[in-house]
Amino acid sequence: MTSGSEGGGALPDERYRRFFEEDLTANVVTRPDGSVVHCNPAFVTIFGFKSIGDAEAANFLSLLRTVKEGAELLRLVHERGIVDHHELEMRQRGGEPVFVVGRIVGVFDEAGELTELHGYFFNDTKRKLLEQQLIQAQKMEGLATLAGGIAHDFNNILAIILGYTTQLEARNSNPDQVTTSIRVIKEAVERGASLVRQLLTSARQTEARLTPVNLNALVRELENMLRATFPKMIGFDVRLQSKFPLVTADRSQIHQVLLNLCVNARDAMPNGGVMSIETLLVPGRELTDTFSGADAAQYACVRIQDNGSGMTDDVKAHIFEPFFTTKERAKGTGLGLSVVYGVVNNHRGFVQVDSEVDMGTTFSVYLPVAETAQEAPDDVPPVGERPSRAAQTIMVVEDEDMLRDLAVHILSGEGYNVLTARDGMEAVEMFAKHRDDIGLVICDLGLPRLGGREVFLKMKEMKPSVRAIVASGYLEPSMRSEILKAGVIDTIQKPYDFRELVEKIHSVIGNPHSDDNHPQLF
Ligand code: ADP
Ligand code: MG
To answer: Which one, 13, 427, 442, 462, has the greatest CB density within 10 A?
Structure first.
């Protein structure tokens, strides 16, 4: 007689047996040494065995890539009881890689001894291989973007050299002009050389491997590359935490992640803005509310912030999907963030997004810090550049393209962040957006759309403490005293003598290269 078979179905035992056998996930019961006690057909298929019997004669831990990984898994089971959503790259019986996501449950006796392991594994191989292809595709895209930027920058460098050598050829060059020209040419050449150096560094990092990575140094390297290739209307504010631990990571992949985030930030600020990059340490417990899997004691965070377009909630919900893009065909592929997500996830890290339409976007990348992690040597100054201080942003308002570029070139070479505007209206808009970041405005007097004097008065309305230097080809003494009375700090004669300009700037907001100099903060 049977008693528990309601509804004419199978016995509960029989039903559970069927669940086990029909399950899509590989289910396995092993002894603590890994020898298989019991498994289901999915286990046989996923791990490439011939039959249940074949699988039950095998050792589960031997399907892991190394003995060390087996030991690590057992350690986690002892420590936590259940190891959940665990990603593993395993080997099939025949040696083929198989990527799984699994849960491993430890069964303990009363004395606390581990008696059995229960494993449940979902085959994630297809998605994983696709993701690897994406990373590859994205690398190519990143290269194309960079190549475009670099070609543009090299052209600018050549234009500067050409412009100044032509000037040198002219018979009437006075000695001062000759010296200035030679200095600018030298700087242009140095900039070109530093660009080449950057390219070589990133080209060498092709193999994927885990090493201790100094994120601060990586951010610096990226900053150098971006300053040289991004439009000059984008200023940088880089803040690095000192005594920062090394993280175990694939350096070139993390480089790719940060680059993708920066390229997106650039695209979100077509009219210029400030990109800030920050490194900081965050305790794991501060993340568990948002990311339940945050089980490391500490996370190294790289935060990339822009004050560009921002995103609507609708867009935000899809950004990590491969091929999701809001950009025109030639501009976006929609791969960037899906790669960011994949790489960070592989490093057992997390990506957080905060964004508000018209206000800007912040991406935070969190990577776990190993308990045994060593401290990175303290901040390395940028390659080919000297240390720069945050908050020293200068806005240059100039309608002559060549002069504006030159000013940007020289001032950023001096370590300042530079924002630019081409006419009076643009200047007022730019100032409204970045008034808190801008420490000094250098403004031409004769400007299209809105003259320099009006621009200054409007800025003063927005921020009474605004500091400005007005440049002009010819200034009538009465006009000069009038603008000085209005609150302009100084005037300068055009064409600029850049040495004089830089000296004036240093005296107003300090020299970013000298440490015993205390610039005023705004
Ligand atoms: P793509 O840049 O090729 O469009 P991504 O995967 O890098 O692809 O980004 C997907 C989308 O996410 C972008 O098209 C854009 O709409 C949005 N997005 C990403 N980063 C930002 C940002 N910093 N500000 C505003 N929108 C962003
Ligand atoms: Mg992108």
So the answer is: 427
In this structure, are residues 45 and 25 in contact, taking their beta carbons and an 8 Å threshold? Answer: no
Q: Which atom of ligand 1 is nearest to the CA of 263?
A: 2
389-509 fold? Rossmann fold (3.40.50)
Query: Which residue would you say has higher pLDDT here, 167 or 105?
Result: 105
Closest CA to 282 of 261, 296, 267: 296
pLDDT at residue 384, as a whole number: 37
DSSP label of 1: -
Does 212-368 carry CATH code 3.30.830.10? Answer: no
pTM, rounded to two decimals:
0.46
Q: What is the pLDDT of residue 332?
A: 67
Ligand 1 residue neighbourhood (C-beta within 6 Å)? 260, 264-265, 268, 306, 308-311, 315, 319, 324-327, 332-338, 361
**Best residue for ligand 1 mutational test, from 141, 145, 264, 333 (most atoms within 8 Å of Cβ):** 264
Q: Where are the alpha helices (DSSP H) in 310-449?
A: 313-316, 336-346, 401-413, 424-434
- Above 90 in pLDDT, residue 381? no
**Do residues 215 and 300 touch, judged by C-beta distance below 8 A?**
yes
Judged on CB neighbours under 10 Å (0-12, 13-18, 19+), 515 is exposed
Containing 303, the helix (H) or strand (E) segment is strand 298-306
Which is more confident, 451 or 496?
451
Distance between CA atoms of 463 and 117, rounded to whole angstroms?
67
CA 263, 268, 270, 272 torsion-angle sign: negative
Structural contact between residues 455 and 438, judged by C-beta atoms closer than 8 angstroms: no
Q: What is the DSSP string of 114-138?
A: EEEEEEEEEE-HHHHHHHHHHHHHH
State which CATH number among 3.30.450.20, 2.30.30.100, 3.40.50.2000, 3.40.640.10 fits the domain covering 14-123.
3.30.450.20
Pocket test for ligand 1, best of 141, 269, 319 (most atoms within 8 A of CB): 319
**φ, ψ (nearest 5 deg) of residue 112:** 85, 10
Q: Per-residue pLDDT tens for 401-437?
A: 777 887 887 788 777 889 999 999 999 999 999 998 8
